[in-house]
Amino acid sequence: MKVHRIALLPVSILVLMLCQNAFGADKKKKVAAPAPVAAATAPTRDAAAAAAANEKAAEEGESVDVSKITEKYWAQGKETELGVVQNRKYTSAGRFELEGFFGTISSDPMLTVHHFGGSLGYHFDQYFSLHAIAWRSIAKGSDALAAFDALNSGTNANTNLPSGFYGLQANYNILYGKASLVGKAIIYVDIFVLGGLGITGTETGNYFTPFLGLGQKIHLNKYMALSLDYRVMRYNETIKYKSPGTLPVTHSVGDVAGDRANTTDVVTLGISFFY
Fold first, then answer.
1. Cα–Cα distance, 149 to 40 (Å, whole number)
2. What is the pTM of this model?
3. Tens-digit pLDDT profile for residues 108-145
4. Is residue 63 exposed (0-12), middle (13-18) or buried (19+ Cβ within 10 Å)?
5. CATH-assigned architecture of domain 96-274
6. pLDDT digits (tens, 9 = 90+) for 68-79
7. Where along the chain do its domains lie?
8. Contact between 158 and 239 (Cβ < 8 Å)
9. Cβ neighbours of residue 240 under 8 Å, at least 6 residues apart?
10. 244, 76 Cβ separation under 8 angstroms
11. Which of 217, 128, 200 is nearest to 164 (CA)?
């Protein structure tokens, strides 16, 4: 029995050594597992390098060719270029303006009123100008007056026909721009506020009239422009009877019926000449 135990001892030692070798190899495999992490860091470094290259390219792309910027679409009228509004092509500073116009006046619903006239002004700079303005009014009865007369035979409405206006007007440009006209041409536009004082003439007298408004000019060339203006005018007028009667009191034609405030809307279309 002892002989057998001694003979088995070398075998046991050999088996133990083989187990130890196998266990050690397994531990080495587990420790080597983080290797992919190192491999994963490679794309991260590549991404950082790419980002740095992009930033450098962006910085280089910020350089601007000034000569190309100066060739603006709005300044040259070329469809292939784009730019912002440049200095005015048509300036009115230090120039006189002569304008002729016509339009419509809306005040008394019993009347239809048209007018025509003109103005002469001077532009002190590109923004401010002062104008002497005058027009003549042509008034007639409206459809409302005809309906009134049909219902009130022998009685005339107490209307006060305007005959004209003259006064002084100041303009201040608030906006200058360029626009494409159906893609075929570039037009140059001035938009301005206006205000002034004057005298409105009527059948019953002349009345002090302040007014405010808004206007627009479309420059055709260096010497001509189309204009469209809107004014709100207000004055107090005296109304007289146009038919005799007994209500509210006995009165004759031409007697004073009372006073009223008249707010008038005036729209004019004109053409201006600069020199």
1. 99
2. 0.66
3. 999 999 999 999 999 999 999 999 999 999 999 999 99
4. exposed
5. Beta Barrel (2.40)
6. 655 555 455 454
7. 96-274
8. yes
9. 158, 160, 203, 204, 253, 254, 255, 256, 257
10. no
11. 200
